Amino acid sequence: MTTRILALCNQKGGVGKSTTTFHLARAAITAGQRVLVVDLDPQGNLTSVAAAEPVPEDQVGLADVLSSRAEETARDVIVSGVWEGLDVLPTTGEALGFVRDELVVAGAGREGRLREALTEVATDYDLILIDCAPSLDQLTINGLTAADAAVVVTQSKLWSANGLAHLLTTIDNVRRYYNPGLTVAGIIVNQHEEHTVAGRHWRQELQEAATARSLTVLTPPVPKRAAIADATEAARGLDEWGTSEATTLAGLYADYLTTLEGAR
């Protein structure tokens, strides 16, 4: 079985990309897979919860792998994750933000640096999840260029729905110029509030926009639940959280993973 590489993306912050990456990783671990999560967000939130030990700000990380001014490879900087079978390609401090600026003025091949870096380690894993930055800059383009498929993480809200078209245009451009095999594995509607009129309206808008592009919206949507954020902040899987609600939510992410890995 070949390694599956998924890039979780949205140019809008606060939609839950890092949280979704974390719980999809847990779903894969409980299914017996070997998993690498790549923290491509300069904020480093995923690293802070997924790494087994705190990663010092001056420790080498993804920024060094992507920079032409450093010699580290992905294998040099990967750290162990909070669960057996999970590894993390970490981001800490401000270094990745500086590398993002470096990529803006870099020459040919800048879009493929992450893809080249992951080539060295891909066969060590069954699944690689890339947590992209909340932007449509060179970091996200690197993530999409390295991926087999994009996973759009969004919300059933006005600004999230309006931003979907811009994100899909970026994905189309990456497919055209850098990664012809890139697909959209699915759209995850996160933090959904079904009991509100606005939540139901914008979920329908997202569904119609996705249908028009022949894209899959994963169902049911992820409900807005404190257990999801609480488990993430505690660096624990929902199946480890100890409540029936959390166990049900863990099953939701497991179903999502099955769908995303099957989308080719």
Automatic annotation (TrEMBL):
Pfam families: AAA_31. Residues 4-183 form the AAA domain. This is ParA family protein. It comes from Kocuria oceani.
